[in-house]
Amino acid sequence: MSVATKSSSTRKVDQDLILEIAAAFNSRDADRIVSYFADDCTFYMASGPEPVGRAVRGKTAVRKVLAERFKVITDMRWDHQYEYVCGNRAVSVWTVKGTSKDGTVLNYQGCDLWEFDDKGLVLNKDTYWKIVRPD
């Protein structure tokens, strides 16, 4: 399905949609991923300079951030665990894995809090993950 088709049709917010989005993230194809996002979306990243992490606003900016991330962590993937959907909101729980070019290994459990618009496009994606530290 093309980006234009997804953006112009109404999608039901359900488990299948969450799993489709998860598959898009695992493809590491930034265009495919943002085809599920509204033009005026916000992606609150897990870390950053703000109390909410790093707020990336707008589909174009989200696409750029994701494309840059996948250049640094070329094998990044999310092992989906489960999700909850309630109306236009959802929670997905996963483990993110990968190795960055500097050798940093990712192996964290995390979750996304999702909010969808009335067309079933991602309006807000708020990401959290646990940081593993030795005791």
Overview of the molecule:
With 135 residues, this protein is α+β, with helices and mostly antiparallel strands. It has one domain: Roll (Nuclear Transport Factor 2, Chain: A). It contains four helices and six strands. The chain has a six-stranded mixed β-sheet with strand order 2-1-6-5-4-3. The chain starts with a helix and ends in a 6-residue tail after the last strand. Mean pLDDT is 92; it is low at 1-5.
Top keywords for this entry?
135 residues; disordered N terminus; 28% helix; alpha+beta; Nuclear Transport Factor 2, Chain: A
Task: List the SSEs and their pairings.
Elements: H1 3-8, H2 15-27, H3 30-34, E1 37-50, E2 53-57, H4 59-72, E3 77-86, E4 89-99, E5 105-116, E6 122-129
